[in-house]
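Shape is hard to put into words, and the shape of a protein is harder than most. The fold becomes a row of whole numbers, each drawn from a learned catalogue of backbone shapes. The outcome of that step, for a single protein, is printed below.
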Amino acid sequence: MNSTSTRWRSDGVRVIHPKEFDSNIAQTPGLRRLAAVTTQNTGATRLWAGTFTVDAKAKTGPHHHGDLETVIYVLNGVARLRWGERLEFEAEAAAGDFVYVPPYVPHQEINPSPDLQLQCVLARSGQKGLVFNLEIEGVQTPELIRWIDDLHK
């Protein structure tokens, strides 16, 4: 093998198995995060990815992720998301949906199911400052936001 092939062997694709996921990361009450793609596991420096679960009829504490962008993919269940300075906005995402959370947006995940665990995959645009838990008193009745893009109005 030439030196390029040898380098790709050790510095190429990485597979992270569930038994290698790391639970020793920043957590938010009501949510269990597991880290998969981290600097330690893969050498990644500009991306972080993992999973999270929320038990049936549970909700997370309000939090944000600093200057990081976050993408959530709902694997199983329904994610009711609330966001805003007083968690005054709300939307739902079901299995197969993606959710984008911009930097610094206070938000909360809620699992409205009486019996199904909410399971999601998430990715973030960096490794630092993954979670900042907040003390927010949410509004009683949030405004329901239904996302309809310009092509489907």
Remarks:
- The mean pLDDT is 91.
- Residues 17-146 form a domain with the Jelly Rolls fold (CATH 2.60.120.10).
- The chain is about 10% helix and 35% strand.
